[in-house]
Amino acid sequence: RLPCNQTSECLALPVRITYYHLTFPTKIPIPTNIFRMGPSNSALGDDIEVAIVDGNEGGYFAAKRVDHGGVLVVQKPITLPQDFEISLEMKLSRFGHLSVYLFKIRLFVTPDELSNTITE
Q1: Residue 5 forms part of a structural domain
Q2: Measuring CA to CA, how many Å separate 32 from each of 39, 57, 98, 99?
């Protein structure tokens, strides 16, 4: 991100936006952690909050806090192949400074059994 000149509106924007693509089958066990996020190193007194900020209209996913970070969890069975785009936010408060990170995660849920046959 570009320098903010200490404006509160700019400082509230994400430090980084990162994109990920994940694929898993419809019959994934419930609950299953499918994505983990956290700072590259931890410091004593770190305070981390994680939240889904967009893309969970069906309630299939949850963001959970774990030691030194957070995880995205499939919490409800996904019975049909479909695609999702989840926006996951991590707020890290360290030494009185707040940093926000945004993860854009594209999820492709495939049929339980994939076929190698080509149909014409």
Answers
A1: no
A2: 21, 19, 29, 27
Q: Nearest 5 degrees, angle CA 112-CA 89-CA 13?
A: 140
77 upstream amide cis, omega within 30 of 0: no
Q: Is residue 86 part of a domain?
A: yes
Which are the contacts of 117, defined by CB distance < 8 A and separation ≥ 6? none
Q: Are 50 and 70 contacting, i.e. CB atoms less than 8 angstroms apart? A: yes
Number of independent structural domains in the chain? 1
Give the tokens for residue 40. Answer: 């590259």
Per-residue pLDDT tens for 55-107?
999 999 999 999 888 999 999 999 999 999 999 999 999 888 888 999 999 99
**Local structure of residue 4 (DSSP, 8 states):** -
**Distance between CA atoms of residues 120 and 13, nearest Å:** 48
Q: What is the DSSP letter of 111?
A: P
